[in-house]
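Lab notebook, page 48
Experiment: co-folding of the full assembly
Goal: obtain a model of how the components sit together before planning crosslinking
Operator: M.T.
Materials (sequences as entered):
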Amino acid sequence: MSGPSTYQPQSPFMKWLEQRLPIAGLVHSSFIAYPTPRNLNYWWTFGAILSMMLAVQIITGIVLAMHYTPHVDFAFDSVERIVRDVNYGWLLRNTHAAGASMFFIAVYIHMFRGLYYGSYKAPREVLWILGVIIYLLMMATGFMGYVLPWGQMSFWGATVITNLFSAVPFVGDSIVTLLWGGYSVGNPTLNRFFSLHYLLPFVIAGVVVLHVWALHVTGQNNPTGVEPKTEKDTVAFTPYATMKDVFGMSCFLLFFSWFIFYMPNYLGEADNYIPANPGVTPPHIVPEWYYLPFYAILRSIPNKLMGVVAMFGAIIVLLFLPWLDSAKVRSSRYRPLAKRFFWGFVVVCIMLGWLGSKPAEGIYTVLARVFTFAYFAYFLIVLPLLSRVEKTLPLPNSISEDVLSKGKTAGATAASLLALVMAGTLMFGGVQSAKAAEGGESPPSLEWSFAGPFGTYDRPQLQRGFKIYKEVCSACHSLKLLQYRNLAEPGGPGFTIEQAKAIAAEASIKDGPNDAGEMFERPGRLADTFHSPFPNEQAARSANGGAVPPDMSLLAKARSYPRGFPQFVFDFFTQFQEQGPNYIDALLQGYQDTPPEGFTLPDGAYYNKWYPGHSIKMPPPISDGQVSFDDGSPETVPQYAKDVTAFLMWAAEPHLEARKRLGLQVMIFLIILSGLLYFTKRKIWSNVH
Amino acid sequence: MTTETSAEPTRRDFLYIATGAVAAVGAAAAVWPFIAQMNPDASTIAAGAPIEVDLTPIAEGQDIKVFWRGQPIFVMNRTQKQVDEARAVKLSALPDPQTDEERTKAGHEKWLVVVGICTHLGCIPIAHEGLFDGFFCPCHGSQYDSSGRIRQGPAPLNLPVPPYQFVSDTKIQIG
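Observation: model returned without errors.
Model output:
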């Protein structure tokens, strides 16, 4: 993009076009002939990975918007309809939701890389500032996207974050009302968030163009921090950097697919599978993992306004980084002290992330203050001071000299990459343990046929579970997202279409008005859902001691419990996704006739070991011998509990088998592709070394 | 020496082609979900189940419009005059030759059931209008006769007959 293009059009058409719109020349000089330092390591491929992630998010987002309804009454169900009914909708939704996390993983690596190698230093200050602007836009976009499914976390996240602006003196409350478009978070809020969530990625794309433009004017930084001097210091962007980037992207896609296909809910909050309820706040409101460090900073300051100022200040300080650090040497490789402080800063960020996921009480608050101080001290004290006192190591004369003198550093790169993955896992796990303060032990982990990468549902078990739902649970609970036709679909309990029709016909569905303008009852059809036995919410409340029996369609995904350290690390590798089923099974068996000593049970409630607060309005629903099985399975409470839980897991995710099957194919494909790309890359680079 | 230099490029070419081919297959496969998502989803398909229509309220000479799969279906109780007119037409005079018997159910000749969408560009024709005692499309002037067959105007085909059957003498199931 800088200087006149070296592009020589060959064909007459290209010559004609080049004189009128030199776009081919622009592409050629920016992405083909563009000289890149020959010593770039794999930390530099995250720029390309970020471009890929932006494209993935925009494409999947446009498609999801075709099926999504931005209305408070329909948003939650429309997301579930995408996952359940739209062709490959589950894949698109998982890709978009996990993609947001991947985007932030990549951007954090990209930012830390810039920090370590001094990529923000002259002449690249504008490049860095544009990057910080992109990061701010990403934060706004990610937040608004998280609100759209209109679950509990969406709703309360929106409430909490918009309330940040109420800290502004004098006009704070007016600003918040303005942001909401109402007296509380509601439909106008959802509509504008949807509109802006659709718009901002294109603004990001625009700033990315500026970011890349600025990059191509100044040229890329590199691990030595020494500017390229001669031809020998650089290689052409294509094929050298291109091949390296494509290989990096392919490996990143492998990592990404692990989440898409095998643990789509690992990075999310179970509470967001409960529809938004303005009357009940979740016990702990936690933002998505990528905002946790800033959330910790917000909470560490015991003053509303100052907390908000500190949180925004933590990002704004990045804008001034090029002037806070005035050291002449760029790369921390040649700055022994800066290198140590850099890794200290990485630890500070991870610790802040972990603290952000913990309840704001006791030792956590104290630690959060210490690390908040350390965060700001790094920028405002350490870096300005270091640039004056540090004795740096001698820089190599040129990039090529550095490359020739050093052997391979691939081992070090791989080790640090692994360390980063582990650190990242640590942080994700922090999210899982966010509810640690609720106390109590965890429900026992059970063996489920659908667990693990090759897990499938046990069809006889699903059929038994359905029988229990029909004969016991359906007296109070609905399954509003499940249709009778689902019973006969692949991946389900394996009923025939005739059996499903017969089951539907047993239900009586309210329909109408007919030609005479009357409501009437008719037998159920395949397209009907498992509706609630109560005519309305009031009736359900009065029949159940004041508590509405929850809809069970998503129960197995909406229930969770803390796993704590170090389980979440194993959970990542073993693809543990069975919190919900373990909890439901434990709850069904957790009734005790006599509460433990010292526990006073409210009237009309029952003691349950696993229910939050141990006092549950639902009487023990199942007892031995209540439902008869044809297949000789024991007719006992443990068997019933397990069977109905498996059924509820299927009801929560009817596409689980399809997801894992496609996942295996994609993983195998990506491993082959990455291998081929690696050897191709090596072959191409062998000319250079 | 010569064998080695000639063998090298071949092996390299194979690697490049294999990598490119695998990447291309992956890109093509990745496009598929983005195309497939546009097809009707499972709940839309399930909602397109057959519907039942009660014929008792439709007097002779009247017609009703019902919806099936989002499309208007005309159910017309034809007069004897309309039936006779439809049967008297010579097939050679029709742009899309079909006998009235092919378009109605034996024993229920007075009932005409057609998809009420003009085969020209998708407008909804008006019943009991036009020159042929049948349907007239106001958009571009297509004329259909009392059997719903195209007689005049730009439409190329007759109004299609949807799949339907008589459940009883006074009830049909469409779909």
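Interpretation: The domain at 459-478+532-653 of chain A is CATH 1.10.760.10 (Cytochrome Bc1 Complex; Chain D, domain 2).
Next step: discuss with group before ordering constructs.
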